[in-house]
Structure formats: C-alpha cells, structure tokens
Amino acid sequence: MQKKRLLFAAVILLFLSTLLMGQSVKFAISPAKLEPGDKGVITATLSIPDGKHQSHDPSDPAYFYLEASHPSLSFGKVIYPKGYKVVSATQWDYHKSVKLTLPFTVKKDAPAGKVNIEATLAYNLCFDDGMCEPPDEAVGKVALEILAAANTEPGTEKPIAAAGAEAEETEAVEQAEQSEAEALPSEGDQPKEKEESSMGTILKYMLFALLGGLILNITPCVLPILPIRVMAIVNQAHQDRGKVLLHTLVYSLGVLLSFAILAGIFIGLRSAGETQGWGFQNQNPMFNVILLSVVFAFALSLLGVFVLTVPGMNTASKATSKGGYSGSFFGGIFAFVMAISCTGPFLGAALPFAFKLSSPLLMLFFLLIGLGFALPFILIGIFPGALKIIPKPGEWMNIFKEVMGFVLLYLVYTMLKTTLALTSGAYLLNVVFYLIVLGFALWMYGRFVRAENSTATQWVFSILALVVIVAGGLMFLPIKAEHLQAEVVMQADASGMIPAPHAPEGWYVFSPEVHEKLMSENKPVFLDIGADWCKNCMTNEKTVLFTDNMMQEFKAAGVTLLRGDFTRSDPVLLKWIQDHDRMGVPFNALYIPGKEPILFPELISHKMVKEALDQIPKGE
Questions:
Q1: What three-state secondary structure class fits 63?
Q2: Whole-Å CA distances, 204 to 58, 367, 370, 374
C-alpha cells in the first residue's frame, strides 16, 4: 500500500510538471466599430513560457508573422516591436511575451454589418539553450462592426489605404507603436514580468482549479448525491480495501473523462472561432430537460421504484461477477453532470485566465478540476481507515437513501423553474407530462425486470420501457417556435430608460449605449448581470442587491442601477463580460467616472458593496 501511495504522488507531480510546456496567443481588434474609410489594428499577443524565446529577423520574417484577410478590408505591413534582446541586426529575441500589430483600413465600398476576420500568427519558439521547436500557427477570429457610412461633403472623402502601403499608418497604429515602445525595456535591461505568462501565475491558477474541484463536493449541486455514492462504493466493495481503492479509481476515471470531454468542447469552439461564456449549457433548454430527466430517474431509483439490472441476471450476481465497477464509473459521470452548473461561481477568478491558455494547458486545467473533485474518493481508497467513520450498514441507510430521493425531486423542481424561464408554460406542461411517462416506464421496468420473472419477460419489458421512454421524448420534448417566449417590449419611463423586469423599482435594463450615456453624464453606475438558472446570482440579489438597506445606500450615493439578463444567450452581454476578463455570471461591477471599474467576486456582501460606494467622490 505504501508503494501505491508513493506512485500516486509521483503521478501527481508528473502531471503538474507539464505546466511549463505551453504557450498561448490572444487576438484583439481596435477599435471594434468603424465606418468605411476608417482605420484600425489587429493585434496578436504571444505568451512565451520561461526558458524559451521567439526570434525575429527584420529582413526576413519567414517564421514569425501576423496575417489576416477579409474582402472588406485592406491590410498594411506588420509592425514588430523592438526585441527585448537585440542579438544582431538580423536577430531580435523576445522573452515573456510579444505583440504584433497589423494595420488595416475599411474599404470605401464595404457593406455595413458585423464581420468575423480570421487572423493567423505564425511563430517558432526556441529554448534558451539553443534547440528550437517546429514552426507552429495559431488561428483566431476577431469581430468588427462596420457602421453605415456617414454623409460627407464633396471632396472630403476618407482616403483608402492600398494593401501593403507603408504610407497608410493610422493614428491607431501610431498609438499602438507608442504604447508598445513605452512598455519595452531598453537594450540590456531585464524584461518586465508579465503576470499571465509567468510560471508562478500558471501554478497559482492551476492550484485554484484543484481547490475549486475539491470545493465542488460541498455545493448544492453535488452534496445530495455525495454520501449516496460513498455508501454505494462501500457496499459494492463489501469492505474489501483493495476493491474500495479500485472503485474509487474507476469513479475518478469517470469524473476525469467527463471533464476532459468538456475541455475538448471548449478547445473545439475556440478553434472554430466561437466565443462561449461559462454556463452556456444552462441557456440550452434541451440540455436542461435532459439533465432534469436524468435526476428524476435517479430520484426514482433511490425511492425504490426500480433497480438497474440486466435481464436474466439479478443484482447480486451482477455485483459479484463484475464488482459493480460500471456503477462507480457512471457514478463519476453523473456527479460531473450535477457539478458543472456550480463550477463557474467557484472558479470565477481562474476561468478567464484558463481560457487564454494553450490547448494542452486548458485540458490540464479542467483535468485538475476533475482531480480535485474526485480527491475525497481517492483519499478514501488510499486511506481505507477513513471508512471507520461511516456507520455500519443498517435500516438507517435505506431511510437516508429515500430521503435523498426527495431531495433530488426538489432539484428537479428547481430545474423545471429554469425550463419555464427558457421556454413557455405550454412547453413546461409537455416536460411535466414526459416525466410522468418516464416514471411509468421506469416503474414498469422495475416491476417486471426481476429475478423471479422469466428471462423472456425481463427482456420484453426492458425493450418496452425503452420504447416508451424514447417515444415519449420524441412526442413531448421537441422545442417548437411557439414554445419559446416572445420577447417582452417594455416602454421607457420618464428617465428615458427601460425598467428592468423581475427587479425592484429603480433598476433599469442594461445596454452598452445606456452605460456610455450615463458615463458621459458623469454618473456612477452599478451593473448586475445574472440569470434565472444561476443560484449565486439569485442569492446576491435576494440577500444584498435587492434589499431595502442596499437600495437606500445606492440612492444616497447617487448610483444608477442597471441589470442584464443572461438567462438566454445574449452576445452583447457575453462580450461585455468577456471584455472584463470574466467568463460568466454572476457579474457585478461599479463604474465611477474617471476611474477603473470595481469588479466584485461571484458572492458579494453588503459590506463589500458599501466599501465600493464609499469610493465615489462626494458630489458625484
């Protein structure tokens, strides 16, 4: 057993050592809105791991360049910052990070609308000891909104830059060069530390991932099923310490595989140029319905309606022959499914950083969340003495299991409320009726797929139950246009702003235009972006933001209150959140004119908000 513990520790250390192997590229565009004839820049920032550097030959940028293409734009030449270390006239070396700037001009005949521009950064990192990695490329998309051309007097049209023309350097480019030059040290100076590219920062956020995964075990999403899973493992192992370890490792494998699949989804979306905030799965009504159906089925199992078994093989013989390892594996997957809704709030500070990492490190980040999530079970397997704190089996276990079944039914109720927020009352009735059909199919399965019945009878009712479940889903669950709630158009009040629904008087609907107008009028603004499916959002609003005391504090400070609803997918809100280096909701910020925004953590308090309001200058 001691050797197993040492081996496990060695694997963890090896796992963490891979943190040094990645780099990341971040693409950006400025400004994001332009008229025909206007000019802007696309930038690509390459974060370089410690111990490596990127070289550049000013006379031949064959392996290090930034390029982009779009029929509505004309592009100039790439602007390279001066190297942190000028080795020679033909070699500049960059350490820590480097930003390339590509100027462009919107063509005069460019149609108005939003366009996605694909940019490619080619790079070739080398180790400081001389060996180089193979050339690589990073591809990303940046969004530009081309506005309708403003009317101009004859002879005052804006000039158009020809592709590659050096003379067309815009004011935006000059500002980019100036800011880059100010940020660069002179020859011989040590480069400034870049927080996001330092090994220490990577290790810190990876530790957040591990701890965040551990904390997930005590969230409302997971806590109801945790003791059930522990007892199931103990019972299946029959107190055999070796089997307990195997069951916990199989459970952990289910968890890690699930988190790896989730990471793969995000990597794929990022590679395709899509931007998704954390919690986007909760904005999908079908995902929500599937999840609540699984939880409902699990609740019926705990209440004794059915026991999952194979026709012709009773539960006891199955557990003896296979050890119930499949149950532990799928138990890990089910625990993951329950946990993902609570992952964002507990990892809010680390998720924005994680999504800037290279694909290997992003995968590692999610695997560390899974490792932290499975860690209590792994410790039980490694230190079986912990099993002594679990009471001996008895009738209390059956009572506890049935009580947990009702707890899961309460979770189904909360998910039905989310379904109503995403769809309509008519579709909610469809979902409720499908749950009745699902319950009948599972009762039929549990009643007839038993050892005392013939194998033929068990197979017939197994297939029949499956047919009822699938047919019911096809009949009641498809979402049609009439199942989606029509957007309610509300009228502005005397202030010229639209009152926010489902919020106390004094809260108004957020939009970037409203926010910009208030800032131009020198008015402080508090912004709350939440969602009906976000438990922490609801907690913040009920216990802090919407309370009478807090509303009086806001009024005394002269703060305008804005609220954004992220229950459904909203690209405007998503971009605003991501522009503040956050990945999801809850999002709370105080904007004081002339100062940097004050961003709040996922869980806020009255004291926290009051201290921020005290920073507003008197008379604002």
A1: coil
A2: 36, 15, 17, 20
Q: Which residues lie across from 53 on neighbouring strands?
A: 126
At residue 147, the 3 state secondary structure works out as: coil
Contact present, 409 and 296 (Cβ < 8 Å): yes
Specify the DSSP class assigned to residue 132.
B
Indicate the pLDDT class of residue 172, thresholds 50, 70 and 90: very low
The tens digit of pLDDT for each residue in 258-294 reads 889 988 877 776 665 545 555 556 667 887 888 789 8
> Rounded distance, CA 387 to CA 8, Å?
20
User: Given the DSSP bridges, would you call strands 91-94 and 39-47 parallel, antiparallel or unpaired?
Assistant: unpaired
Longest C-alpha distance within the chain, in Å? 94
Section 98-118 average pLDDT: 90
**Strand ranges across the sheet with 125-127:** 85-88, 91-94, 52-56, 125-127
pTM beyond 0.85: the answer is: no
Give CA–CA dist 65/79, Å, rounded: 9
Transcribe 533-599 into DSSP letters.
Answer: T-HHHHHHIIIIITSHHHHHHHHHTTPEEEEEE-SS--HHHHHHHHHTT--BS-EEEEE-TTS--EE
CB-based contact 230:331 (threshold 8 Å): no
Q: Which residues pair with 141 in a beta bridge?
A: 118
Chain region(s) in the chain for CATH 2.60.40.10: 23-182
Which is nearest to 97 in space by CA: 175, 163, 26?
Answer: 26
Amino acid letter, 343: T
Q: How far apart are CA 81 and CA 62, in angstroms?
A: 16
CATH architecture, range 23-182: Sandwich (2.60)
Residues in the chain: 620
One DSSP character per residue, 270-293 reads HHTT----BTGGGG-HHHHHHHHH
Tokens found for residue 304: 């004794």
Residues 6+ apart with CB under 8 A from 593: 519, 522, 523, 524, 620
Identify the helix (H) or strand (E) that includes residue 166.
none
d(CA 18, CA 11): 11
Burial class (CB in 10 A: 0-12, 13-18, 19+), 427: buried
Residue partners of 484: CB distance under 8 A and separation at least 6? 423, 424
CA distances from 150 to 30, 146, 153, 156 (A): 20, 12, 10, 11
Considering the chain, tell me which residue range(s) the CATH 3.40.30.10 domain(s) occupy: 507-613
231-243 per-position pLDDT tens digit: 766 666 555 667 7
Instruction: Give the pair of three-digit tokens for residue 436.
Output: 């009745």
Collapsing DSSP to helix, strand or coil, 138 comes out as strand
In angstroms, rounded to a whole number, what is the distance separating the alpha carbons of residues 39 and 43?
A: 14
Give, to the nearest 10 degrees, the angle between helix 325-346 and helix 226-237. Answer: 160
435 pLDDT exceeds 60? yes
For CA atoms 307, 313, 317, 321, the dihedral sign is: negative
The CATH superfamily of 507-613 is: Glutaredoxin (3.40.30.10)
Backbone angles phi, psi at 193, to 5 degrees: -75, 130
Distance CA 259, CA 600 (A): 27
Distance CA 540, CA 600 (A): 11
Could you give the CA distance from residue 601 to residue 619 in angstroms, rounded to a whole number?
27
Q: List, for residues 18-60, the tens digit of each pLDDT value.
A: 444 445 789 999 998 999 989 999 999 998 887 788 888 877 7
